[in-house]
Amino acid sequence: MKLHASIGAIAIALAACSQEPAPPAASIADQSAAVAPGQTSRERLAAVLEAQPEKERARYPYRHPQETLEFFGIEPGMTVVDTYPGEVWYTGILLDYLGAEGKVIGADFAPDMWARFGRFAPDPKEKETWVQDFIAKTEARRDAGDAAVGAIQYGAVPDELAGTVDVVLAIRVLHQFMRLEADGGYLTQALADMNKLLKPGGIVGVVQHRAPEDSSDAWATGEAGYVKQSAVIAAFEQAGFELVDSSELNANPNDRPTEQDIVWRLPPSLATSREDPALRAQMEAIGESDRMTLKFRKPAA
């Protein structure tokens, strides 16, 4: 039973996190925000968010993108790393918001980490060219005035990027590093890479599915998508980061997982109720997962 749940969780994790094919460049341009001269950062971000596809805007009550990016202190002109970037979350949003003086750097898992996803692992050849492919794909989406684009893979951060980044985002992704830490030290490597990338005083913004603190450590490894907030804080502090602030803006008290649950039972995946309308209605009534929102800082000296 435990093995079945583990394999299922990996499959659902990949399905839930997988990126949709990029829309044609013209359709992306049509969705670009009209950024007016003299707008405040808040007004600019609001305009960018309003320009996103309706499907993504429907998730704002759970993902709170305006409040989340503001909490992390992200401003136009910054250089931001988006860990495991998606079409919209958050690379698509940041392209418009950061503007021509800013830069978005997509960061993927290391190829050998991907190999540990078992039969759900992608073709290794895809990861050999991921950096070039991501840049080319994202460049095709860029509109006039959008941020510059870069890409890295964890475990292979170029020295020339050391100390150049203002903010690293780790949104709903730490469970993957944490569940595989014992297999290859992937969380340790990722935190070291974040430290390397950041300027002194730079920020790591974390949003992560949250396990109840009274759940067992054996369950809250990330295999079911959930990890304990205390475990995340401990890992960052051990890596030399300072916890600056925490917020409940992405909390959902209706999500009370037991140790028989996986996070992908909830929207938007609804992975366990696709053939069960009654169960699906129960999951939709809960809403998206309860999430911690944490702000860490690389010490200035």
- In the CATH hierarchy, what is the class? Alpha Beta
The percentage of residues in β strands lies in 15-25%
Count every helix, treating DSSP H or I runs of 4 or more residues as helices: 15
- Overall pLDDT score: 90
The total beta strand count reads 8
Structural class: alpha/beta
What is the CA-CA span between the terminal residues?
49 Å
Written as H for each helix and E for each strand, in order along the chain, the element string is HHHHHHEHEHHHEEHHHEEHEHE
CATH superfamily, by name, is Vaccinia Virus protein VP39
Overall 3D form: globular
**What is CATH's topology name?**
Rossmann fold
The structural domain count equals 1
Rounded radius of gyration (Å): 19 Å
**Largest sheet report:** 8 strands, mixed
- The appropriate CATH architecture is 3-Layer(aba) Sandwich
Q: Please bin the fraction of helical residues.
A: 25-40%
Low-confidence stretches: 1-8, 10-31
Model description:
Helices cover 39% and strands 18% of the residues. It is built from 15 helices and eight strands. Strand 1, helix 7 (91-98) and strand 2 form a beta-alpha-beta unit.
Features:
single chain, 301 residues, alpha/beta, Rossmann fold, 8-stranded mixed β-sheet, 15 helices, globular, disordered N terminus
